[in-house]
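--- STAGE predict ---
source: upstream dedup step, 1 unique chain passed
mode: sequence only
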Amino acid sequence: MPTPIRTEAGRAAAGDPAPAAARVVARSAPAREPAARVVVRRAGAATVLGELRAASPWAPRPLPPAADGSARVALVQTAATLLSGDDCTLELEVGEGAALELVETGATVAHSVRGGAPARMRLRIALGAGARLTWLGRPLVLAAGCDLTRTTTIALAPAARLLLRETVVLGRSGERPGRLDATLRATRAATPLLHERLTTADPSLLRSPLVAGGAVTLDSIVLLGARGDSLPGASQLAAEGTVWRALHPRGVDPDGPAHTVTERWRCASVCR
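--- STAGE serialize ---
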């Protein structure tokens, strides 16, 4: 007859102490950092805020809604970041038929980890059927000595649309950039839309003509769920989506060229 398996609950009920290995694991497991969270839902002709949850380094703050009823939320930084060992998560959930514009109030600086543990940033975006999200993010500045792993996961339901801007600045004035390993994975109904990775770990590869060359600013605007106009620097994806990229030397304001693209693509991302 097979020997019955005794679970931890069964041992506790019988008064048996937990194995030493289990006790060690329970004590040493790190606590998961809380996630900042923004949830919006459709209510009639307008979008309403369902949840605004702050977690270092972000504090979502409500803004007056747009004229079309879209919700607007400011993403305010409440702490100096990104430092050694930081583990930051931001979750965005836009419900079916809802619309959200996320507004960042300032750039994010990845600081030197001074030989310590790397920092981590997780961005998780979920858009329901027919949902719309516009997030024209402010720059991520890679200070010398930084070590950052950033993962962006985007899940779109059918007819959902996203307009996202990501800008990376390779070092502050007069310094080389630290390490960034950034991945973006976007799917619609579990089908891949866009999977890409950027790493600055190899300076020779980063400075090759195929990646950044002599540029200091790497600018990217992604439209998913619809196709944007084929502007200079834009590439059409196999599925519904368009990506625009630009490289800028130091001293050039990237907002001018990006503004032209976002204004041309905004209607494709937000108009019903």
